[in-house]
Design brief:
eight-stranded mixed beta sheet, nine-stranded antiparallel beta sheet, 20% helix, TATA-Binding Protein
Length: 371
């Protein structure tokens, strides 16, 4: 006879076995998914390496031919990259983006445009300010303008890229040595900005927060950093391009950049007495990933003499490495690609760069060192 007690017991049994069944199904599904994830785990993506073998970075000549020994005296005694804002170890990626650099091409108006640019900053004849100084042709794309009055200056420009170098006889020029029109740090920056604006060469990828200035004096025909209390005679201004993918761009003449200007006093106002303006345009619209070395591998390369040591180094044959960094390298000669480098810095103004792309993905032939 069906009673309430029997019905209750049947319902309890059904719920019990139903719960066991549901738990069993959940366990089976979890085991199945675990097995599936293990057996059919997606393969990690590989670097794209769309550009094939990359050319070696065209580093300049090393500042020394003597073999150097290195001691890791970093914060933790390793090649870890330490974030200066958090003091935490940065995670080094196994690959980085490689970007093409746009190669400028001359056209029929290139020389006229360059004449207009140098005329705008005073390379005009002494008798007629509306007449540009005639240019001397040095090569298919390189021309030189020489101004022999006032502060004698010489400007050499590549008329395709409009990059230029300017030199002068400022070390013995009376108006420079008198410092009567010597610039301040801020006015030196304004002078450079005004010159680039007049030439219509102001880059659009400059991080103004990184701009540096250094004060100098000239003593017995030698320029050196000014000491506190000395009358400043010249100010060097360095512009830096924007970081790429969060990585700083480094230059071969560290701490100077490839856009470096020495501003001095002049006859009536401050003027640029020396300049290197080499601005290479990064094609940020496309990129390809390439594997990079570990910091330890890069340090081993440095120890094996495979790094580029900048001219700023003033020490002996033993170097204390204080910091390790990772960034991109932009030289003063044209390079086809923006490529990453490890940056080792230490005592006595030591800076060295080591190519970060793994050796298998770069050509073994080294380019001729840039002069």
């Amino acid at each position: 006879m069906l009673t309430l007690h029997v019905v209750t017991e049947d319902i309890r049994a059904s719920l019990k076995w139903g719960a066991i069944a549901i738990i069993g199904i959940i366990v089976l599904i979890s085991v199945f998914n675990l097995i599936k994830a293990t057996l059919f785990r997606p393969k990690p993506s590989l670097p794209t390496m769309s550009y094939g073998l990359l050319p070696a970075i065209p580093f300049p000549k090393n500042s020394t031919t003597q073999p150097l020994s290195y001691i890791l005296n970093t914060v933790d005694g390793t090649t870890h990259i330490i974030d200066p804002t958090t003091n935490q170890v940065k995670v080094i990626p196994d690959r980085m983006n490689i970007y093409k650099i746009i190669r400028p091409q001359p056209d029929l108006t290139s020389l006229q445009t360059s004449n207009d640019e140098v005329q705008a900053i005073g390379f005009v004849t002494q008798d007629d300010i509306n007449q540009v100084i005639p240019a001397q042709r040095l090569s298919d794309t390189e021309y030189e303008w020489d101004k022999n009055y006032g502060l004698p200056q010489s400007l050499t420009m590549d008329i395709a890229s409009h990059n230029f170098h300017l030199t002068s006889q400022y070390l013995n020029y009376p108006a420079v040595l008198s410092a009567s029109n010597a610039p301040t740090d801020s006015s030196a920056i304004n002078t450079v900005q005004n010159v680039l604006s007049a030439m219509q060469l102001t880059p659009t990828d400059i991080d103004t927060s990184l701009t540096t200035t250094t004060d100098y004096v000239i003593v017995n025909g030698i320029i050196r950093p000014a000491q506190p209390g000395e009358n400043v005679m010249a100010v060097r201004v360095n512009f830096f391009q924007n970081a790429v993918d969060g990585y700083q761009i480094f230059y071969p003449s560290n701490p100077n950049t490839a856009m470096s200007f020495l501003v001095t006093g002049g006859d009536t106002q401050a003027e640029i007495a020396q300049a290197t303006f080499v601005h290479q345009v990064i094609d940020s619209s496309t990129s390809s990933t390439y594997p990079i070395k570990t910091a330890d591998q890069a340090y081993a390369d440095l120890q094996a003499g495979k790094g580029y040591i900048t001219l700023s180094y003033t020490g002996g044959n033993s170097v204390n490495i204080r910091t390790v960094n990772l960034g991109y390298y932009m030289g003063e000669v044209f390079q086809d690609y923006l490529m990453p480098v490890y940056v080792f810095q230490g005592d006595n103004n030591f800076t060295a760069y080591v190519s970060a792309v793994t050796d298998n993905e770069t050509t073994t032939a080294q380019p001729s060192p840039a002069e």
